Amino acid sequence: MVERRSSVDRFLKKFSDTLGFGVNDLVSYAPTGHKVIGIVVDLDPKIRKIYVDWGGCGNIHQHDPEELQITMLQEKSVKNKMADVKIKKITASMVGDVSTTDFIDPVTADLLNKQFAAELSNSAFYRCCASWFGNNGYPGFEKYFLRQGDGEAEHAMKIYTFLSEASVRVAFPVINDQQIATDLKTIIKQTLVKETETTKNWQIISKSAETGNNVAVIELCQWFMKEQMEEESSITTLYQKTMNIPLSGGLETIDMLLRENDPIIK
Ligand SMILES: [Fe+2]
Ligand SMILES: [Fe+2]
Questions:
Q1: Are 27 and 148 members of one domain?
Q2: pTM above 0.70, yes or no
Q3: For the chain, how many structural domains are there in total?
Q4: Residue 266 domain flag
Q5: Is 58 left (phi over 0), alpha (psi -120 to 50) or beta?
Q6: Which of 8, 131, 248, 261 is the one with CA 20 to 30 A from 174?
Q7: Residue 54, Ramachandran bin (φ over 0: left; ψ between -120 and 50: alpha; else beta)
Q8: 265 in a domain, yes or no?
Q9: Closest residue by Cα to residue 63 from 53, 74, 49, 73
Q10: What is the mean pLDDT of residues 24-48?
């Protein structure tokens, strides 16, 4: 054991001092050319492993550094491909020598990540609309839209917590700027359209989760689908009420009601 430990130490020193390899460096296995590549990982400060994808097909094995003749990987296209998908993902699910369960397949994880950003974007949308209502004499509509904005931020955090517990790193994809209309009825209609789009997103995520047999994600989708039913119902009622009102006095009444809660819904 002592002998093995000193052997590891010798190789660690060789990697770090002589060859300059460090944690997360991608390396290739010299004798078989460039296609067999691995990543350098420290399981704890003293245990270094190389995770190698032997066939280049996601079949990962871990090795002690001294078992392999490693060179720094030079081929950029292979490096990029590998860095994206396989080895980093596999090593992220390793705890010591144990590979933890993959609760979310990569496609569903990506969809959920995009939905995280979409919910945040919806939150910003509601708040921007709230500001328009506030500036145009509708304090009740402003409050209603601010409440909805808070709800969307909570949705985003629900997805964040889910992804985080499943060991998926949350990223923020860029979302295009969204134009907000400048009259009450169009804003309400825009909001209804946005909610129906959100429901479609959740249907797509749900389908993907079923395909990947991601049971935990399916449960999450069920919660969101129920939430979408409530939200579509709420904004649909508001849309119908505002469309059917010919006089501004009717809007004043709705505005009054919206200050406290969503009483016009039921
Ligand atoms: Fe939402
Ligand atoms: Fe919503």
A1: no
A2: no
A3: 2
A4: no
A5: left
A6: 131
A7: alpha
A8: no
A9: 49
A10: 63
